[in-house]
């Protein structure tokens, strides 16, 4: 097969999670491991995105617009720029991984570009005009999409989550009666708006025991918020803390493999922790995430704290203590999680994309 030319449309910003970029990079890496691939990214250009793309060996980065954030890109400007870049470079396939785009957005791309694959992770049920539509949200049900008149092919559920395939080199955890390591990860905007990581550390300091706690923060965090976390850790006396900023995904997997429980906002981390069978306490960053956290609670027994702005230090402490002390729940939670995600979602997506390109 000749070299394939793939274009990705993806953003990361203050509210738009880093998971979208990680998904796109996971697909790119998987394609590159199979065939000769020429890849380009259309994106807002901030330091975080550029650094991650350069680390992955991506040389062609096209700004979707000048001087805008991921949250401010207009759909009209987005579609016009994406179509222009795609046609000028004669790509074989466009892969779109963006939140909060309208049905007309996908309709315009589909009309002007021959082969479009859309990656979604929301709880919405709607028609999307793309060649392939992947929605890996735990809330999705394939039955809904049967019988649609458009030519889109819908592939839904956690079996299609595009995770970094390096994860497959790591093993699911073993549930132990005594907790030794706790993993804490929250996105930059929750740290900035609600001080979530500091609240979690302060709650942990009120819990008896001797724990090692890995705190993960992204490269998007502002220095003043990072300093606040560092100061809180320095003033802590009960447990040992390790602050990990903007680390490679392999390092995240190493930490996950050693952890006993985790606490996180709802996002891709929930599916990564599912692969490891890591019992998880969830925080919903916004109201639209509540259906996702509810599904994880009902389906695989994760602990669901609800909306971030309703969570106080006492709730965090009680939930952490409850999970730490409930060995049977952690075993049940871990087993159910491991049945949800097998780590092969990226492979499934790439096989579908490559089949389409071959047929084209």
By CATH, the topology of the largest domain is Rossmann fold
Could you say how many structural domains there are in total? 2
Q: What is the CATH class name of the largest domain?
A: Alpha Beta
Helix/strand/pairing category: alpha/beta
The ordered H/E elements are: EHEHEHEHEEEEHHEHEHEHEHEHHH
Terminal Cα span: 12 Å
Provide structural commentary.
This protein is of the alpha/beta class. The chain folds into two domains: 4-163 and 343-359, Rossmann fold, CATH 3.40.50; 167-338, 3-Layer(aba) Sandwich (Rossmann fold), CATH 3.40.50.2000. It has helices spanning 19-34, 47-55, 75-89, 103-112, 188-194, 196-204, 223-235, 249-258, 268-276, 290-300, 313-325, 327-338, 345-359; strands spanning 4-10, 37-43, 60-63, 93-97, 116-120, 132-135, 153-156, 181-185, 212-217, 240-245, 261-265, 280-284, 303-307. The strands form two sheets. Strands 3-2-1-4-5-6-7 form a seven-stranded parallel beta sheet, sandwiched between helices. Strands 10-9-8-11-12-13 form a six-stranded parallel beta sheet, sandwiched between helices. The mean pLDDT is 94.
Briefly say what this structure is.
The protein is α/β, with parallel strands linked by helices and 360 residues long. It has 13 helices and 13 strands.
Q: What is the fold's blueprint, element by element?
A:
Blueprint: E1 4-10, H1 19-34, E2 37-43, H2 47-55, E3 60-63, H3 75-89, E4 93-97, H4 103-112, E5 116-120, E6 132-135, E7 153-156, E8 181-185, H5 188-194, H6 196-204, E9 212-217, H7 223-235, E10 240-245, H8 249-258, E11 261-265, H9 268-276, E12 280-284, H10 290-300, E13 303-307, H11 313-325, H12 327-338, H13 345-359
Parallel strand pairs: 1-2, 1-4, 2-3, 4-5, 5-6, 6-7, 8-9, 8-11, 9-10, 11-12, 12-13
Helix pairs in contact: 1-13, 3-4, 6-7, 6-11, 9-12
